């Protein structure tokens, strides 16, 4: 029986130790409140695109409103006179605008290649027999996603006259400050925050699942290839598995290399930098609930960097070791096969692919940006 066929069964302690259970929580929440156009198919035991036209129309309306809010944020960032605004408000504006823009672009990447992404996820999910590297991100992500949207909503209610909110500058104050205006704009902020975090989280979990599954099977292959006395049938089995991983790698690059990986990497560096600055310089000026959610978000970014970015680098490093082990075999056939094997590469656009040096450069960039921002604004 499918463990998701009965809702009560997923609360069993055994199921809570599986990352699929926490992913199922996220999918059901997004499906129920129209936060992302996906649903869990119990018959096929996999994720599929939502088919309800009403739910899709509601989600598209929220997505369009989020784009409109993001455009206002970008215009404000480019035209604001920063000398008239406190630095803590500047950091909030940059963080608010960059996260909304990132979510909009990531969701657009999903819509642009939804069929390819869904097919790739189904292929990866069939091989996801592990929890290591995925469970921590899924558990912490599911908890953070259900709490984080309340942070921007509380900020909106406390700082309704801030330049970050278009209603305070483009609408009559009489309506904006009335009870219906407070309720409508507060609810709107909550809904688009949910759409942003659930959309970005789906893309993020897709990257984490693929990198960790590929890393796991490559480690199995690399450990098996260390022996110098491999039987021919063992070699054949390993090469068949490596060929399957290579096909999966090509599908992942087709689905995620053009939009998702470049945007995820650059925006993650920007958001991580701004959260570092807020935590170091402006933590005492932030309310306790907002500070708590900010810390949870920072921890989630760190887990994602470890699971996805470092995992992507490990995919190349371990596949390179497997290739070298095969090429060092005593038989001539093994050496020929070793020269013909291509290392698995997770592409970032057409510019470069992840290596361990790429991950180290990314972390150094975050540190340097944090120092430069603090020296510039403080």
Can you walk through the features of this model?
The protein has 378 residues and is mainly alpha-helical. The chain has one domain. It is built from 15 helices and four strands. The strands form two sheets. Strands 1-2 form a two-stranded antiparallel ribbon. Strands 3-4 form a two-stranded antiparallel ribbon. The longest helix has 46 residues. It is globular and about 85 Å long. It comes from Folsomia candida (Springtail). This is Odorant receptor. Keywords: Membrane, Transmembrane, Transmembrane helix.
Structural class by SSE content: mainly alpha
Total number of domains: 1
Rounded to the nearest angstrom, the radius of gyration is: 23 Å
Number of strands: 4
> How far is the N terminus from the C terminus?
59 Å
Number of helices: 15
Nearest-integer average pLDDT? 81
Q: Could you give a short account of the major beta sheet?
A: 2 strands, antiparallel
Summarize, please:
The chain is built from 15 helices and four strands. By secondary structure, the protein is mainly alpha-helical.
């Amino acid at each position: 029986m499918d463990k998701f066929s009965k809702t009560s069964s997923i609360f069993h302690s055994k199921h809570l130790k599986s990352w699929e259970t926490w992913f199922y929580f996220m999918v059901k929440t997004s499906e129920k409140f129209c936060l992302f156009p996906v649903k869990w198919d119990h018959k096929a035991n996999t994720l599929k695109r939502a088919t309800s036209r009403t739910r899709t129309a509601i989600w598209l309306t929220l997505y369009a409103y989020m784009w409109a809010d993001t455009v206002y944020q970008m215009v404000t960032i480019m035209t604001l006179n920063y000398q008239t605004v406190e630095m803590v408000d500047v950091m909030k504006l940059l963080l608010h605008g960059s996260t909304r823009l990132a979510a909009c672009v990531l969701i657009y990447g999903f819509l642009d290649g939804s069929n390819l992404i869904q097919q790739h996820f189904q292929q990866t999910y069939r091989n996801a027999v592990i929890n290591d590297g995925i469970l921590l991100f899924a558990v912490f992500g599911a908890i953070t996603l259900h709490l984080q949207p309340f942070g921007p909503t509380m900020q909106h209610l406390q700082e309704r006259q801030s330049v970050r909110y278009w209603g305070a500058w483009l609408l009559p104050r009489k309506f904006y400050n009335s009870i219906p205006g407070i309720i409508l704009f507060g609810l709107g902020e909550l809904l688009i925050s949910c759409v942003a975090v659930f959309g970005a989280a789906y893309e993020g979990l897709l990257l984490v699942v693929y990198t960790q599954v590929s890393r796991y099977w490559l480690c199995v292959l690399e450990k098996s290839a260390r022996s110098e006395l491999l039987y021919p049938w063992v070699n054949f089995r390993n090469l068949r598995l490596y060929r399957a991983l290579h096909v999966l790698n090509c599908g992942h690059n087709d689905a995620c290399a053009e939009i998702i990986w470049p945007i995820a990497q650059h925006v993650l560096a920007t958001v991580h930098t701004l959260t570092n600055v807020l935590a170091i310089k402006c933590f005492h000026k932030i309310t306790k609930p907002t500070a708590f959610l900010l810390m949870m978000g920072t921890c989630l970014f760190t887990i994602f960097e470890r699971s996805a970015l470092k995992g992507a680098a490990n995919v190349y490093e371990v596949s390179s070791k497997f290739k070298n082990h095969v090429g060092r075999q005593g038989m001539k056939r093994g050496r020929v096969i070793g020269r013909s094997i291509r290392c698995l590469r997770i592409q970032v656009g057409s510019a470069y692919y992840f290596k361990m040096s790429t991950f180290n450069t990314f972390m150094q960039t975050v540190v340097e940006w944090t120092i430069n921002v603090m020296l510039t604004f403080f």
